[in-house]
From TrEMBL:
<dbReference type="InterPro" id="IPR046373">
    <property type="entry name" value="Acyl-CoA_Oxase/DH_mid-dom_sf"/>
</dbReference>
<keyword id="KW-0560">Oxidoreductase</keyword>
<keyword id="KW-0274">FAD</keyword>
<dbReference type="InterPro" id="IPR009075">
    <property type="entry name" value="AcylCo_DH/oxidase_C"/>
</dbReference>
<dbReference type="GO" id="GO:0033539">
    <property type="term" value="P:fatty acid beta-oxidation using acyl-CoA dehydrogenase"/>
</dbReference>
<comment type="similarity">
    <text>Belongs to the acyl-CoA dehydrogenase family.</text>
</comment>
<dbReference type="InterPro" id="IPR050741">
    <property type="entry name" value="Acyl-CoA_dehydrogenase"/>
</dbReference>
<dbReference type="Pfam" id="PF02771">
    <property type="entry name" value="Acyl-CoA_dh_N"/>
</dbReference>
<dbReference type="InterPro" id="IPR037069">
    <property type="entry name" value="AcylCoA_DH/ox_N_sf"/>
</dbReference>
<dbReference type="InterPro" id="IPR013786">
    <property type="entry name" value="AcylCoA_DH/ox_N"/>
</dbReference>
<dbReference type="InterPro" id="IPR001199">
    <property type="entry name" value="Cyt_B5-like_heme/steroid-bd"/>
</dbReference>
<dbReference type="InterPro" id="IPR036400">
    <property type="entry name" value="Cyt_B5-like_heme/steroid_sf"/>
</dbReference>
<feature type="domain" description="Cytochrome b5 heme-binding">
    <location>
        <begin position="1"/>
        <end position="80"/>
    </location>
</feature>
<dbReference type="Pfam" id="PF00441">
    <property type="entry name" value="Acyl-CoA_dh_1"/>
</dbReference>
<dbReference type="InterPro" id="IPR006091">
    <property type="entry name" value="Acyl-CoA_Oxase/DH_mid-dom"/>
</dbReference>
<dbReference type="Pfam" id="PF00173">
    <property type="entry name" value="Cyt-b5"/>
</dbReference>
<dbReference type="InterPro" id="IPR009100">
    <property type="entry name" value="AcylCoA_DH/oxidase_NM_dom_sf"/>
</dbReference>
Amino acid sequence: MKEFTLDQVNEHNKENDLWIVIDSKVYDLSRFAALHPGGISVLLAKGVAGKDATNIFYGLHRQEVLLRPQYTRLVIGKVKGEEETIKIPPPGTISKVPYAEATWLVDSFHSPYFKESHRTFHKATRTFFEEVIRPEALRCEENGKRISQEVVDKLSEMQVIAMRMGPGKHLQGRKLMGGTVKPEEFDYFHEYIINSEMSRFGTRGFMDGILNGAVISLPPVLKYASPELYNKVVPEVLSGKKFISLAITEAFAGSDVSGLQTTAVREGDYWIVNGTKKWITNGTFSDYFTVGCQTDRGLTVLLIERTEGVNTKAIKTAYSSTAGTAYVTFDNVRVPVGNTLGKVNKGLSVILSNFNHERWVIICMALGAQRVVVEECMKWATQRVVFGKPLSSQAVIRSKLAKMISRVEACQNWLDLITHQMNNMTHEQVSDKLAGQIALCKQFVTKCARETAEDATQVFGGRALTTSGMGKVIENYHRTSGYDSILGGAEDIMRDLGVRQAMKKMPKDARL
Ligand code: HEM
């Protein structure tokens, strides 16, 4: 690379002949200056034109700006005797920013839960997500389009779709994340890693668009479908050829599942289904729906294929339409009786048993996103200069950081403990002993998330209000962190459920 002295750079300090230095690299902005999104005048200012503008640059731009090909082309050389000091981390890197990572990933910290296999798996997962998924996440979040088939194929090649259903026999014979973990070793900590890694891009809509519909709707098929139905549907979904959504919620009933109004009436070997479902994640592009219906004496869960009488229409929500959120209508849909999941009229237990895993997944994702927000705030508080000093020199900012850190660490520790129980309990024990803990942990994590969103917004100021630039991750988080506090069960319902479960277990002879 060509080398220049700072004096040589300094000679190019005017319009049409403009060089600057960022972190030892010399950029020729002569032609770009007129196109610069921040305007030309800021580039011609004293202290910028022909100067080392590293600190000014990082006060105004994210590192990723310099990685864009149209800007890397502006580099014409480097400053003699200087080396790069701000290294752009390669995919898979573990952040060195304090509290940016769960402690089990931090040097010299120990964990009773995570083993070498989790570390190897984590490395491969983070690399895969950063290289393959991140660009897609950013693209889809912005343009609102559904995940591309090309990326779905890569997810299925790595067996990500299968792993997101949790440990179990559906993983047998599969090469998980390039063979970094054996199917029989795969546990809920591995699954937690996937869920939290995919949440790191500041793209909440895409976090649902990356087939969260399948995560919440395929487990009842895995558990309750007849062998014929299982053998048809499960391979199609796990290979990414077909898509599936959970369709329980209606405009008429959400957390009060027993109040659902969609009906299924027996007619020979078929159910005739009529009704509507709302807020159905991935619904706009799903081929199958796991549907809660009223039958003569209770609820029954059916797997309904997109056939005649099934229609979906996109619902506009506050997050990106890449999630495929839909309003689904069933008009006299004929569903073979063989598509019944679980016992007729006993669908409530099918639905409820599925909720624990769904809520746990939401906790993992919400926490992954919260971690990133802490990292963003730590970096911003360090690099943003106000009144001539870094933002972190203000005690009010440090106080906000302290609250954010404490929240994310408290949430993490509770999640780790619950995940450890899931690894060691049977499905029945999880339903009996852990449903309350998962519900309480979910409402705690989502409440913390919203408090952290509020604090982070104050730390970033106006930048947290724009969808591009320095505060874009915080903007997305502030706008969407409420989703986790509603989806899978609203916070108040979670609190009530957790305490009711505890009350059920109060010993009869407990006295003060
Ligand atoms: C290689 C050099 C540079 C490139 C490629 C570049 C590129 C950009 C881009 C893409 C944006 C839009 C916002 C974003 O995506 O982050 C932007 C905004 C901006 N840039 Fe630059 N820039 C460069 C150097 C500088 C320098 C040296 C200054 C010094 C004052 C500057 C000042 C600004 C300002 C004030 C904004 C608006 C920021 C905001 O809206 O918050 N830029 N620049």
